[in-house]
Structures are given as structure tokens and as C-alpha cells.
Amino acid sequence: MIAKKSMVYQKRSFPERTCVSCKETSPKRELIRVVKMTDGQVKIDQTGKISGRGAYICLKDTCWKSKSLKKDLSRALKADLTSNVFENLVRYAETVLFQQRLKD
User: Fold this and answer.
1) Quick one: which of 101, 31, 23, 36 has its CA closest to 66?
2) pLDDT in tens, 53-86
3) What is the rounded CA–CA span in Å between residue 69 and residue 57?
4) Helix-strand-coil percent breakdown of the chain, rounded to 5?
5) CATH of span 17-103
6) Of 26, 40, 77, 92, which one has the fewest beta carbons inside 10 Å?
């Protein structure tokens, strides 16, 4: 007789990442990924699949309004962020936050 192995179902774990501003961990899908691509261009990765060095920021107002956010992102991406690029990132985050509030 062949003994059947009992199937034990484990709770599926989701990848977690740390916000560069507040240092709290959250599920990867709840964070905004900023990526420095191989050509040095910095942009927001909406798919989470662009190759390059990534940093994650949560959707809290306090994180996006933090005075040290530009420095934290620059350190995490190992790149100098120009004011123009940083303003575009903040503008994008504001639209995402606004859309999130409309859903709630």
C-alpha cells in the first residue's frame, strides 16, 4: 500500500518592501516604485518590472511631504535627482493619492 502524503496548505506570503521615507514595511503592491534605469534615467515604475535600481515609497502624505524625501531617494537609487524629476514624482504621487481618496 502506498501512503498518501497529507497536503498542508500554507498561507501564501506576499513580497514586502520598505518605504525609503518612513522605513515601514508594506506589501509591494501598496507602494510606488521609483527606478533608476541602466541609462541613468529616473522614473516611476507602474508595472514593477522595469530593470534597474528601485526604491519604494508608501502612499502616506507624510512620506511625500517629508523634507528629506529627495535625499532619501537619491541615496536609495544612488543617483542625483534633479528638481524637475523630483517635482514630476511628487506630482504623480499627488494624482495617485487623489484617486485613492476618491475610491475610499
Assistant:
1) 23
2) 999 999 888 998 899 999 999 999 999 999 998 9
3) 9
4) 35, 20, 45
5) 3.30.1230.10
6) 40
